Amino acid sequence: MCRHCLDKKPRDGAIRALRPSFGFVVYDTTETARPARSVRLAHALFDHTRMNRDTIRYGVDRIEVVTLSLLNFFSVDQRAKACMLHLDF
Predict the structure, then answer these.
(1) CB 46 within 8 A of CB 63
(2) Are 43 and 64 in contact (CB under 8 A)?
(3) CA separation for the pair 58, 65 (Å, rounded)
(4) Could you write out the DSSP letters of every residue in 3-61?
(5) How many CA atoms lie within 13 A of 28 on its CB side?
(6) Which helix (H) or strand (E) holds 87?
(7) How many CB atoms lie within 10 A of CB 18?
(8) Which of 58, 69, 59, 62 lies closest to 10, judged by CA?
(9) Is the pLDDT of residue 58 over 70?
(10) I want to staple 84 with a disulfide (CB 3.0 to 4.6 A). Which of 15, 60, 67, 89 is the partner?
(11) Are 25 and 68 in contact (CB under 8 A)?
(12) What's the number of domains the chain is made of?
């Protein structure tokens, strides 16, 4: 995870150029979401999926975990909408 990427939106050209074309994006939208936990989660996902990702042979890939802390009263739909807005769908 690029620590300097934490404040940037996914559409930022400088960030987009660093990304492989294939990847997984995971959002931590829990109220307790913090960048340090996102780093640990990204490493855990990377390590636990490495064998499957290597077998499929997509080429270079990435696992990106985005810290998007939302209050507990946000519904699942509201959380999904916030994630989609972050990605500018």
Answers:
(1) yes
(2) no
(3) 19
(4) GGGTTS-TT-HHHHTTS-SEEEEEEE-STT--HHHHHHHHHHHHHHHHHHHHHHT-SSE
(5) 18
(6) helix 76-87
(7) 11
(8) 62
(9) no
(10) 89
(11) no
(12) 1
Q: Is residue 30 situated within a structural domain? A: yes
Domain that holds residue 31: 22-87
Tokens found for residue 46: 């990377």
Asked whether residue 38 is domain-assigned, the answer is yes
Altogether, the residues listed in the chain come to a count of 89
Give domain status of residue 14, yes or no.
no
Q: Would you state the structure tokens that stand for residue 27, as one six-digit string?
A: 């959002």
Two tokens, residue 36: 């340090």
Residue type, 77: D
pLDDT of residue 36: 95
**Cα distance between residue 73 and residue 54, in whole Å:** 39
Q: For tokens 């931590």, what's the residue? A: 28
Summarize pLDDT for 12-26 with one digit per residue, the tens.
667 667 766 677 889
